[in-house]
Design a protein that fits this description.
The chain has 351 residues and is α+β, with helices and mostly antiparallel strands. The chain has 2 domains: 262 residues, no CATH class; 67 residues, Histidine-containing Protein, Chain: A. 17% of the residues lie in helices and 30% in strands. Helix 6 runs antiparallel to helix 7.
């Protein structure tokens, strides 16, 4: 297992960063998220509200297509007497303590022990939507995805089909390339927010000695047919222009630090934010999916929805793509709720 390579942060505590294990000062938020205190997810202990230890996180099941953490895999504490059984817990059922190293689950030890065991050696079976849905129901959470036999309808919250669920530890070191067979590198780490159930970005490490790390939105990636590699609809030139993930090792008395470059383009005074509500997340997902379905090149456009308001930021290669992206966003919302900050053509970097 490669759990030592993945870092997790609480909603108020961090986005992931591989090198920044030390406590860092909280800077001004950037477009791709602020770098804050981080912890490795294998250090996170799960306790209930009676302060009884239920276990610790050993892995995560994620749905890249929908940009979501589907489930948190918890190895049961030895005190429970269930031989280290692995239990799947919905991420939104977890409440982080201020330290970010303990998450609270509203469940008795008996309820937790009653959960079905997850066999990671039979992962395809473990990723079935009916099995995942059962875990959500056990811990009192509503599924964001359509369950077996359900059809999309005019629900209070639109639901999506569950994408292929993969373990994070299987994603690390997975090759990343484009549809033309060009290899871009391999998965280095992921930036995630467990309590909000969100995958933010996938960090891709390029081959060679330069250790170049590119920041790729999770929903821009898809699996190949064998599900042993990830595909990105980028040319070599487009991939070279993706934002970079910059790490600085600890040296000369300074702590290790890391940050993500912003996408170029006009910016408002505040950072581009994504709301945590189901409505906001689903709207962003539906817009992103519609753009991909329409095969529009939106590699330099960010999408964020907060309180129902959609922001489009970045740049497009031509006016037609800009208009089509705007049209998709308006169709998923209303014209007065879409803030179009996109420009046409690569902007000149400001000094």
């Amino acid at each position: 297992m490669k759990t030592y390579q993945i870092l997790l942060g609480a909603a108020f505590a961090s986005t992931l960063a591989l090198s920044a294990l030390a406590a860092l000062p909280e800077p001004t938020p950037k477009t791709l998220g602020a770098e804050k205190t981080t912890v490795r997810f294998i250090e996170i202990v799960i306790k209930n509200h009676q302060d009884e230890s239920l276990g610790r996180i050993v892995d995560l099941g994620v749905d890249l297509v929908n940009g979501r953490i589907v489930e948190v895999l918890v190895m049961s504490d030895s005190s429970l007497g269930v031989d280290g059984k692995i239990v799947a817990v919905p991420p939104l059922a977890l409440i982080p303590d201020p330290s970010g190293k303990v998450y609270r689950l509203n469940a008795t030890t008996e309820l937790f022990k009653s959960a079905a065991a997850i066999d990671v050696t039979k992962w395809t079976e473990a990723g079935r939507s009916d099995r995942v849905a059962a875990a959500y129901h056990l811990f009192g959470q509503e599924t964001y995805f359509l369950e077996e036999g359900d059809v999309a309808g005019p629900e209070r919250r639109p639901k999506v089909s569950l994408g292929y669920v993969e373990r994070v530890n299987k994603l690390v070191d997975m090759p990343v390339g484009n549809f033309q067979g060009k290899e871009f590198g391999k998965v280095y780490t992921l930036t995630m927010d467990i309590p909000r159930g969100r995958i933010l970005n996938v960090i891709v490490l390029a081959p060679g000695n330069f250790q170049t790390k590119s920041v790729i939105p999770a929903m821009a990636l898809s699996f190949n047919e064998a599900r042993d590699a990830l595909l990105l609809d980028d040319t070599v030139e487009e991939f070279a222009d993706e934002p970079r993930y910059i790490t600085t090792e600890a040296a000369y008395g300074n702590e290790a630090s890391s940050h993500q470059e912003n996408y170029k383009g006009p910016q408002t005074a505040g950072p581009l934010e994504q709301g945590a509500s189901y409505h906001d997340i689903d709207r962003t997902v539906s817009i992103s999916r519609a753009i991909r379905t329409a095969k529009i090149n939106n590699r330099h456009v960010e999408i964020g929805t907060i309180n129902g308001r959609v922001t489009l930021r970045g740049w497009t290669y031509n006016a037609e793509d800009k208009a089509r992206i705007m049209g998709i966003a308006v169709a998923a919302s209303r014209v007065e709720l879409v803030d179009d900050q996109m420009t046409v053509g690569r902007p000149v970097a400001s000094k």
